[in-house]
Structure formats: C-alpha cells, structure tokens
Prior knowledge:
This protein has helices at about 10-25, 55-60, 65-70, 105-120, 170-175, 195-200, 250-260, 265-275, 300-305, 315-330, 335-365, 370-385, 395-400, 405-420, 425-445; strands at about 5-10, 25-30, 50, 75, 80-85, 85-90, 100-105, 125, 130-135, 140-145, 150-155, 155-160, 180-195, 210-215, 215-225, 230-235, 280-290, 290, 295-300. With about 450 residues, the chain is of the alpha/beta class. Strands 6-5-14-15-16-13-17 form a seven-stranded mixed sheet, sandwiched between helices. A six-stranded mixed sheet has the order 8-2-1-12-19-18. Helix 1 (about 10-25) runs parallel beside helix 10 (about 315-330) and helix 12 (about 370-385) runs antiparallel to helix 15 (about 425-445). The chain is globular. The protein starts with a strand and ends with a helix. Mean pLDDT is about 90; it is low at about 440-445.
Amino acid sequence: MPTSVTIIGSGLGGSFLAIALAKEGYSVTVFESRKDPRKNLKDAGKSFNLTLYYRGIQALKKLTIWQDVLRFAIKAEGNVCHSLESGLSFDPFDKTGNEVLYTIHRSDLNRTLITLAESAGVRFSFEHKFIDLDKKTKRATLKNLKTGKSKVVSFDFLIGADGVHSAVRPAIQKGRKASFQKEYESWGYKEVNLPIPLVKKLKLRKNSTHTWPRPDSLLIAFPNADKTFTLMLNLPLQGKDSFETLTTEQAIKAYISTVFPDLMPALSAITASVLHKPTGSFVTVYTEPWYYKDVALLIGDAAHGVIPFYGQGMCAAFEDVLVLVSYLKQFDKREAAFAAFQKERKRNTDVLASLSRDNFVELRDKSRSSVYIMRNKVNTALNKIFPFWLPPLYKLIAHDDQNYADAKERFDKQQKIAKVAGISLLTALLAAPFAIRSTVKRRSLSK
C-alpha cells in the first residue's frame, strides 16, 4: 500500500510537491481553503506576475512539465529602464547562456500545476480549511467551508505548504521550543492590468520587462503571453506619496504626472487599481523547527517566506521539493530526511531572505546610479574575459543553480580580492564620467 501524504495548500509549492510525490508513487491528497482557481477565474487583485529564472526552469524540466508551463509563459529579452534623468535604456539578457527569464502570471501557473497534479493521480479538496493537527495519531481536522462540517483525515505524513500565514506552522511547533519572526516591509503593492491598446499607447517594448526606479517608489511591468502587460506599483504604505495619501483621483493624477509622466496614458487604469484593489504586503518569515518527527513538515513560504525582489520565492519552493524528494529516497528514516532537509534549506533560504531585502533597495535606489550600473557591467565583462571571475551577484543567484549560501560566500570572497587588487577603484573611475553626465543632465532638467 503506497505511503499516504496530506498536503495543506494548493499554491505553487503545494501543487508542485504533489506532482513530484505522485511521480514517486505516493498517494497524495491536497486540501485548500480557497475555491478551485480553475473555476474561480477572478483573483483577489493582489496577485502579480512571477519570474521564472534558470533554477526554476530546471526544476520544471526535472518533473517533465516545462513544456506544459511554457504555453503560458513569455521569454523576456531584456529590461527597459525608464529614468527621469536619462530617459530610456535597454539592458539585454544573455541570449546564449543561462541568463534566461520568463514571466508568467501566478494564476496561470497555479491552474496549470493543479491540472497536471490531477493528471498524475493527486486528489484535491477545495474549500477545506485546516483546523488542527494531532501529531500523536497522525490525523488532521479540516472544515468544509461550504457545509460548515468538520472531518478528520489520517495520513502517513503531512506537509504544510500554506504560505506565509501558515496554519500548519503553529500546529507543528505547538508545545515545543520554537522561534518565529514575521517581518513586514513598510511598502506595499497594487497590480495594474495594461490591455493591448494601452500597451501600444505607452509604446512598451514587447518581450521585455520595464522598470521605473524612483527615490520613493518603484514600478515594474511584466509582459504576458497574450501581449498585455501587468504593472506592479510599489509604494510606501504611509507618508507622502504613499497608499495612505493617494486616496483621490486628483491626488493620483498629480502624482503620476509628476513622478511617472510617461505613464499618463494609463492614468485611468492606475487610478482604478489604487482606489479599488486591495494592497498587497511584503513579508519575510524566519522560523524553526520546520518539522515534527516523521509526522509533519513545512515547505515554501510557510517555512521561509521572502519578498519578491530577487524573483526567487517560487524557485526556492520548487528547490525545496526536489531536495525533499531526494532526501526521502536517500534516508531510510523519514525523520532523518526531514532533519537533513531543514538543515540544508534553512541555511540557504535565510541568505535568500537577506538578499531579497537588499535587492529591493538596489532596484529602488541604486539602479538609478551610474556607478552601480557601470560596476555591474565591468563585473560582467571580467566574467566573460576571465571565466574564474564571478559575474554580479544577482546573475549568480538568479541564473545559476548553486546553493544561495555558497554563491553569496563565493561572491563576498571575490569582492574582498577586488578591493585589495584595486578593481573596485577601477570600476568607480570608469563610472565617474557617466555619473557626471547624469548629474549635469539632471540639473538641466530641473531648471
């Protein structure tokens, strides 16, 4: 009789895990409190496009489902930066190496993974809320949200894949020494849909991401397979020019016309989203333990939620699944597999959480700096001339599949060498003319 697994949460990590375990011969049942997203096509308005980098693509290929996902994804050829000071600049992605980026809407990917899981024999029960876990008897209590009735299910082991606000997490940690930290950023986001007519008016470059970095705001636009774009508007939650103050059509118009003048054709769409769509939050989760004996385990955001500014949250969840499946094969005792899983993944996801928060600052502030841009270009050039020289950290993390912690450690060592060898000074000198030119242009614009 196959080992029975109960998964709480049918999001990206939960549905991907369900596919992986079903392919290994496990009997898998997934419970989800939401309605079936394939029938409920309207999302909550807080979803945003996801970026599929090299390591995420490799994970999908390992489960032989990449071609199924590819139907809903679009390959980005590069990024267009919309700067107030220097205008438009296009940074192409590597066309031959691993520097490949696809974008896909979360809802499309989630629906696809659920359908693929069902095809692999996974059973789904939607509108069932997790209530409690009996760790001694290996039973979980769930509530049918349609009928209001509760039911108890038995399993060999249970996986909590129910996100940053996980209900499984406290159930696993109850009665034990545990640490838990949930850190909210002081920023939030709104999603703005840009239909084809608006895309044409805005003259957005197709098959490219677009960024509008500003001192106190950041906009990112992602291309969709249907030739529309999804705009992610990131602003402070409070203070001047924040979601707290942009509460009228007049205020929004004044703000967009001043800070993002090239987006004025999309004013109506932006206004509707700011006024009527819920504000999404950015949350980082640090916690342990992730497991209880051989009974239950956390994966994905339930164990290590990160903010999305490295584009690695989904990739990290997919890697969780591959590592877990490999350890379940390697160890005779499931508890040993769970322990090894936590030891390896927590080290890496803690680093990813820190990198994601740092990269938010870089996208928002440093990406407007000529020195920062030139340093990245010099590092990239050195990497092409001397293969032993590592590229910029972002490329090392996003476009490679080595462990996050190992990549960061290697890059930090190289930075120390660069400082001693004078390469850091060289990049600053190379960037100086660009910085001066940018400053002159910025001053001329302000006159």
